[in-house]
Amino acid sequence: MKRNIVIATITAAALVGGGTATAFALGGDDEPSAAGRSSVQLKDHDDRDDDRDDARDDARDDARDDQDDKAEDAAEAKGAKVSAAEAIAAALKSAPGTAVSADRDEDDGALVWDVDVLGKDGRIWHSVEVDPGTGKVLGSHVERDDDGADGDDGADSDDAAEDARVAAAVKGASVTAGEAAKAAGGKGTVTSVDIDDDGSRVDVWDVETVSADGTEGHWNVDLGSGKVTADRSDD
Known about the structure:
The structure is a single chain. The chain has 235 residues and is an alpha+beta fold. The chain has a domain at 8-39 and 79-173: Nuclear Transport Factor 2, Chain: A (Roll). Helix content is 33%, strand content 27%. The protein contains six helices and ten strands, in the order H-E-E-H-H-H-E-E-E-E-H-H-E-E-E-E. Strands 6-5-4-3-7-8-9-10 form an eight-stranded antiparallel beta sheet. It has a two-stranded antiparallel ribbon with strand order 1-2.
């Protein structure tokens, strides 16, 4: 379950300016924080990919593209010195509460950890960006559960119910997001930790990993026991 608390605008401003920008809060919740530039910058593959898109007409090109994707994933894993568990710990120091997810994302050519934290009061959600090279908190964004209450009542009700279900699951879990990341760390470099709320039950952490050669892995970590099993639902 990845909440759509986005600070891309803030981070983009910081990346373009090469310095810092001021974060803002939605719903009139003024809690400014600083957003900085990630120390892990990725190579631009857009031109190469665009040229290759025109020639992708057989299985050989598809296989080459798959190898390129694996190479990029492996390079990102190597460039990220800060683990998922470490990024979660850094985010929780900045925004105390319960970590709900952590994703290593690319943002305008920069690599960042995006960690979602449910505040201690159970109503305020924090999206915290952490530098994968240094562990420094780059910026944060705040959203209350009652934000957007004037929108579509049906959609708001569904979102609120989903948030409540996930919040209850993580607060009652014996295994935290950080512990789930450590548990799956033996399978490869963890790139994502999230609550699996696709079914009627919320009982596992959904963890994604990448191996040294760029091969992706998908794992379930039990919220109660911490047992790691392969996620058979992913092809």
